[in-house]
Write the structure tokens for this entry.
Amino acid sequence: MAQKTPLNSFARARKVGHDAKKKKRQSAIAQLQQWAKGKNVEIPNTK
């Protein structure tokens, strides 16, 4: 039985969804939304 590999000889690397910047940005947006609702949440530093 042939061993499965994620790539063939002609393919380039597949993109994966492990983007740390995106996760940080999404959590900051969620915190801003909670702050806008009037919850007691610190405003995140988005820069």
